[in-house]
């Protein structure tokens, strides 16, 4: 591609356009961070109003902001891909798992338990065994048995909306 020779005014226009573009990216990033901060402040105000003093965890879909949700989604997706490839049993987790909010919650909890067993500095020596003996089979069993078992082995089937309570009082769970 040949470079077009620009006069000084043209160069200034290009520089201004580049600056504007950078400012727009900065603004998008700040807006995203602000949304996360807002979610955090909202959660803390809620705690103050209700007298609860609990600290929200970074894996709480109910309270984290959109940026944190995006990061959590990416990490969880990567980990679920790994367990589905690592354990033949884990193929029971359907590929449409992200379409089921309760399965997202279940897998998040399973992932946190896995991290406690494998990525904590001083894990309990039985944590990994418990994860295999209890947490993983428990989730796989719930996916296939009981009144809320999934029916997605061949293809995704959405649950009827009537399965869920109205969400107007809930703040953006995944
Ligand atoms: Zn499904």
Kindly summarize this structure in a few lines.
Residues 13-40 form a coiled coil. By secondary structure, the chain is mainly alpha-helical.
Features:
mainly alpha, 2 domains, 57% helix, disordered C terminus, binds zinc ion
Protein model, in words:
This protein is mainly alpha-helical and 174 residues long. It folds into two domains: 9-55; 72-148, no CATH class. Helix content is 57%, strand content 0%. The protein contains four helices and no strands. The protein has helices spanning 8-50, 66-86, 101-118, 127-144. Helix 3 runs antiparallel to helix 4 (127-144). The chain is elongated, with a radius of gyration of 23 Å. The chain starts with 7 loop residues before the first helix and ends in a 30-residue tail after the last helix. 10% of the residues are buried. The model is unreliable at 170-174 (pLDDT under 50). Bound molecules: zinc ion. Residues 94, 96, 99-100, 150, 152, 156-157 line the site of zinc ion. The site of zinc ion has 8 residues, from loops.
């Amino acid at each position: 591609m040949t470079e077009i020779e620009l006069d000084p005014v043209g160069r200034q226009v290009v520089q201004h356009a580049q600056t504007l573009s950078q400012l727009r990216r900065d603004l998008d990033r700040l807006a995203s961070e602000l949304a996360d901060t807002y979610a955090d402040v909202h959660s803390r105000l809620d705690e103050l109003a209700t007298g609860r003093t609990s600290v929200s965890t970074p894996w709480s879909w109910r309270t984290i902001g959109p940026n944190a949700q995006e990061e959590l989604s990416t990490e969880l997706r990567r980990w679920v891909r790994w367990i589905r490839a690592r354990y033949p049993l884990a193929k029971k987790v359907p590929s449409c798992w992200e379409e089921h909010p309760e399965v997202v919650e279940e897998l998040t909890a399973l992932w946190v338990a896995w991290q406690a067993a494998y990525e904590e500095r001083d894990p309990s020596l039985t944590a990994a065994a418990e994860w295999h003996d209890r947490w993983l089979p428990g989730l796989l069993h719930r996916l296939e048995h009981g009144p809320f078992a999934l029916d997605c082995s061949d293809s995704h089937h959405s649950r009827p909306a009537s399965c869920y309570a109205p969400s107007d009082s809930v703040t953006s769970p995944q």
